[in-house]
Amino acid sequence: MSYAIIRNEKYTKEQMIQLAPHNERFKKKYSNKNIDLSKTSQNYHLKKPVENGYLKEYKRLVSENNLKQGQIHSNSIYACEMIVTSDSAFFDKIGRKETERYFKECYDFISSYKNLGEENILSAVVHLDEESPHMHLVYIPVVNTKDKNGNVIKKISASEFWKGKRSYKKLQDSFYKYIIEKGFKLERGKENTDREHISTDDMKKLTNFYDTKDLKENLDKVKDEGITYSDVQEFYKYENFTKDSVEKKLIVPLIKYNNKLIMQNDKLLIELSKVKNARKYYYDLEQKFIELKKENDEMNKKLKYNKIELEACYNVIKDFTEKNEKMEKILKEKLGIDYSNLCKSKF
C-alpha cells in the first residue's frame, strides 16, 4: 500500500536562498542523480514566484502583506518548506490527471493549514523529472497575534507556527484525514517523532553514497580491463617479437592499467577521508547524547534531593499542626479558652 507523505523543513536566510536553484531548476546540471533533465519541462507551478530568487520574493511578500518580524539572528528561520509526495506505484496507478488533482488538493490543504494563507506562499512547484512526483511548497510561517499595544499583527515566527512537541504529528494526522476524504486511497505516513533528523539525500551526501557507488562501478570496469596471465600466454604465441609488438600488445596496456589503478586509488583515499568525517559526525552526536544523559541524571538527583527536603518540611509542618491542635484542645477543655474565636476577635 502507498503512503500519504508530508514533511516540513525549516530554513535560515542562507538555506532559503540555496533552496531556489534546486526547486526552480535554475541550473543546467545537478549532483542529484535522480533528476532527468529531459523531463524537466514537465514540471509545473501551482504558485510561481514573481521575483527571480526566494530572498527577493520573501522581501516582496513581507512588504506587500505587512508582515512583522522580531529580532533577527544568523540562525533565524525565514521560511519553511513542505514536501508532499507518495511512491511511484501510486502515481502510476492514478494517472496524470489524478496526479494533478492530488497536488492541487495538497496545495489547498497547506494554504489553509493553521490559517497560513496563499498570500504567504513563496513558491509551490511540482517535480515530475525525478523518480517519484512530489511538490515543494515554500512558505513564510505567519501567525496572527497582538503587539505590545494590543494591535492585531501578522508575525513571522516558525516557533509559534510549529508550537508544541507533537506539532508535526498533528500535521500528518490532519493531512491524512484530508487527503482520504478527497478520494485518494493511501495509508497514513510514518509518524514523525519531532526529533531532528537528516534527510535521506543529505545522509547520502554525508556518506558520499553516490561517489562511492560510482567508484565501485569504475573499479569493476578496471578489473575487467586488466591484463591476466592468460593474456600474457596469448602474447607469447606471437612469432615476431618486435619492439612495436611488445610495446603495443603488452607495455602500453600495462601502463594504462597501472595509471587507472593509481587514479582509482587516489579517489578511494578521498572517499575514505569523507567517510572518516561521517564517522566523526556520528561520534560527536554520540558524545552529545552522553553529555545530555549525564545532565539528565544530575537533574534527577537534584529532583530526588528536593523531594526529600519537601517531605522533611511537610513532616515538620504536620507535626507543628498536630501540636497546635492539641494545645487548642487543652486550652478549651482546661481553661475554657476558645483559641479559634480569640484569633478571630483580634483580626
Features:
347 residues; BirA Bifunctional Protein, domain 2; six-stranded mixed beta sheet; three-stranded mixed beta sheet; 10 helices; 57% helix
List the helices and strands and how they pair.
Layout: E1 3-12, H1 13-23, E2 44-47, H2 54-64, E3 67-69, E4 77-85, H3 88-112, E5 121-127, E6 134-139, E7 142-146, E8 152-156, H4 158-161, H5 167-181, E9 187-188, H6 200-206, H7 209-225, H8 229-236, H9 243-335, H10 339-346
Parallel strand pairs: 1-9, 3-8
Antiparallel strand pairs: 1-4, 2-5, 4-6, 5-6, 7-8
Structure, described:
- This protein is α+β, with helices and mostly antiparallel strands.
- It has 2 domains: 3-193, BirA Bifunctional Protein, domain 2; 198-347.
- Helix content is 57%, strand content 15%.
- It is built from 10 helices and 9 strands.
- The strands form 2 sheets. Strands 2-5-6-4-1-9 form a 6-stranded mixed β-sheet. A 3-stranded mixed β-sheet has the order 3-8-7.
- A hairpin with a 6-residue loop joins strand 5 and strand 6.
Biggest sheet statistics: 6 strands, mixed
Helix content: 55-70%
Strand order, main sheet: write it out. Answer: 2-5-6-4-1-9
Mean pLDDT: 80
Summary, kept brief:
With 347 residues, this protein is an alpha+beta fold. It has helices at 13-23, 54-64, 88-112, 158-161, 167-181, 200-206, 209-225, 229-236, 243-335, 339-346, and strands spanning 3-12, 44-47, 67-69, 77-85, 121-127, 134-139, 142-146, 152-156, 187-188. Helix 7 runs antiparallel to helix 9 (243-335).
